[in-house]
Amino acid sequence: MKKFFLHLTLIISLFTISAKAQTKISISDLKCEMLTNPEGIDVLQPRLSWKIKATINDVKQTSYQIIASSSLEKLNEGNGDLWDSGKVESDASVNVIYNGKKLKDRQDVYWNVTVFTNKGEAQSKETAHFSIGISTYADWKSTRWIGYEKMSKGDSISQYSRLSARYLRKEIDLKKKVKSAKVYIMGMGLYELYINGNKIGDQVLAPVPTDYTKNIKYNVFDVTSQLKEGKNALGTILGNGRFFTMRQDYKPYKIKTFGYPKMALQLFVEYTDGSKDVIRTDDTWKITTDGPILSNNEYDGEEYDARKEMKGWNTINFDDKKWLSAEYVQEPGGFYEGQMSANMKIKGEVKPISLTQTPKGTCILDMGQNMVGWLQLKVKGNAGDKITMKFAESLQPDGSLYIANLRDAKTTDIYTLKGEGEEVWEPRFIFHGFRFVEISGFKSKPALENFVGKVVYDDIQTTGTFDSSNPIMNQIFKNAWWGISGNYKGMPIDCPQRNERQPWLGDRTTGAYGESFLFDNQTLYAKWLDDIKNSQTIDGGIPDVAPAFWRYYGDNVTWPGTYITVADMLYQQFGDAKVVEKQYPYMKKWMDYMEENYLVDDIMTKDKYGDWCVPPELLELIRSKDPSRLTDGELISSAFYYQLLNIMKKFAIIANTQNDIKHYDELASRIKKAFNAKYFNKDKNNYANNTVTANLLPLTFGMVPEELKQKVFESLVHEVEVTKNGHVSTGVIGTQFLMRTLTNFGRGDLAFKLASNKTYPSWGYMVENGATTIWELWNGNTADPAMNSQNHVMLLGDLLIWYYENMAGIKSNPETPGFKQIVMKPDFNAGLTYVNASYESIYGTIKSDWKKDKKGLVWNITIPANTSAIVYLPTTNVSSITVNKQKLTQFSASIKTDSNNTAVTLPSGSYVLNVK
Question: Model-level pTM?
Answer without folding.
Answer: 0.96
